[in-house]
Amino acid sequence: MLYIIMVVVLQALITLTLLLYLIKNRESVLNMLLLYIGVVALDMGYEYFIIQRFGYEPVLYEIPGSLRVFKGLIFLYITTYLIHSKWRDKLKYLIIPLTLVVVHHAIALTAKIFDLSWADMAIKSYQAYFSYYSYYWLACLVICIYFLTRYRKNITHPVASNFRYLVSYVLLGVLVFWVVYQLGWDTLIYQKIYSLLFLFQFGWILYVYILTYQHRLLEQQNTSHFSAPKETYQYKDLSKIDFDAVQNAIVSFYQESHVYLDEEFTLDQLSSHLKISKADLSITFNKHLTTNFHEYTNKNRIQHFKQILSEDPSASVIDLAFQCGFKSKSTFYKYFKKEFDCLPSQLIH
Questions:
Q1: Is the Cβ–Cβ distance between 316 and 89 less than 8 Å?
Q2: CA-to-CA distance for 296 and 77, rounded, in angstroms?
Q3: What is the pLDDT of residues 266-290, one digit of tens each?
Q4: Phi, psi dihedral angles at 125 (to 5 degrees)
Q5: Do residues 348 and 340 touch, judged by C-beta distance below 8 A?
């Protein structure tokens, strides 16, 4: 009995930890994907524990795990981040009701274990709104696919296309399971197959994580190489570069496009958009704009941040910073102070 209570309490504590992680690290797609793996693994672990203790039908279908409610929220966060949605930060308000679901689950399961007089009432009330979970999960997946498809031309993040395939894969699995259930087939067998299908998701996410990490290392090497004036100028005939045209193209791009607000935006992507070699861009940044790619990009992000904050002074500073492409608070404050020599709150007043 004590072990069961410990599992329930541990699940609640892990949930709170995941929520805090979600709030503080939602600026990274890869962090969100790893968080999704954690949620699914914990939910499956809970199901395995219940099966071992009570059997499958008696408790698991009566009081299904609650951690799964966060999967839809995580997918929505990733999608709205990829499409640079301004209402992305509003999703944080869903954390409160979803947390209440987890708390209710813990209370109902505890009452069931101790066979308390009000246990049935707690379970029925939990079932009353958890029965809508399937519709919520399906709605989240459909919304994600819709936005990822509609705005696919504006998305530059390297993970975007694969993430759209992942969401479609998950949606297909959910629909097949729903059909099996509606036809009255043996859902227990498909449940096991459905659980095994998560291994493909885990493998894909870890694969993307490794590729993205390697891409970042390569990009850092390329950036450091092209930012060194001596190495850059040695093999370029500067007289053949139309610096005015390149500079105008750079300025126009940052004025007319918001692609640079993606935290993964790179010099390679800028080169691809402008159809100008990275070497010519780097030389122009250093020689005519007296800066480098990263400095110039972050300066424009700060200006975009100022514009949004002036339109909505009540908005969260940190949320806007992440929305503008900064990966951490320290980096944001560093460039903000460098640009305005004050704090964001002082700029508002």
A1: yes
A2: 27
A3: 898 899 889 898 888 988 998 888 8
A4: -65, -35
A5: no
Tens of pLDDT, residues 122-164: 888 888 888 888 899 999 999 999 999 988 877 767 677 778 8
The answer to whether the beta carbons of residues 232 and 226 sit under 8 Å apart is yes
* pLDDT at 1 (0 to 100): 46
Residue 316 CB coordination number (10 Å) = 13
Angstrom distance (rounded) from CA 106 to CA 65: 9
Q: How many helices (H) and strands (E) does the chain have?
A: 16, 0
**Which residue type sits at 142?**
V
pLDDT digits (tens, 9 = 90+) for 10-51: 555 655 565 555 555 545 677 777 778 778 777 777 777 766
Report how far Cα 84 is from the mean position of its chain's Cα atoms.
11
Residue 288 and residue 295: Cα distance in Å, rounded?
A: 14
Give Cα separations from 308 to 6, 92, 99, 334 (angstroms): 46, 19, 30, 19
Query: Taking the CB of residue 23, how many other CB atoms lie within 10 A of it?
Result: 12
How far is it, in rounded angstroms, from Cα 326 to Cα 216?
15
8 Å CB contact between 152 and 164? yes
At 220-260, the pLDDT tens digits run: 565 444 444 444 444 455 667 788 889 999 999 998 888 89
Give every CB contact of residue 288 below 8 A, 6+ residues apart in sequence: 243, 246, 247
Distances (CA, A) of 111 to 58, 120, 123, 187, 204: 15, 8, 9, 27, 39
**SS3 (DSSP) at 132:** coil
Kindly tell me the burial class for residue 201, based on how many C-beta atoms sit within 10 Å of its own C-beta (0-12, 13-18, 19 or more): middle
- Identify the DSSP state of 25: S
Q: Which two tokens stand for residue 323?
A: 């929305």
Give Cβ neighbours of residue 345 (< 8 Å, ≥ 6 apart).
317
Would you say 19 and 99 are in contact if contact means Cβ atoms under 8 Å apart?
yes
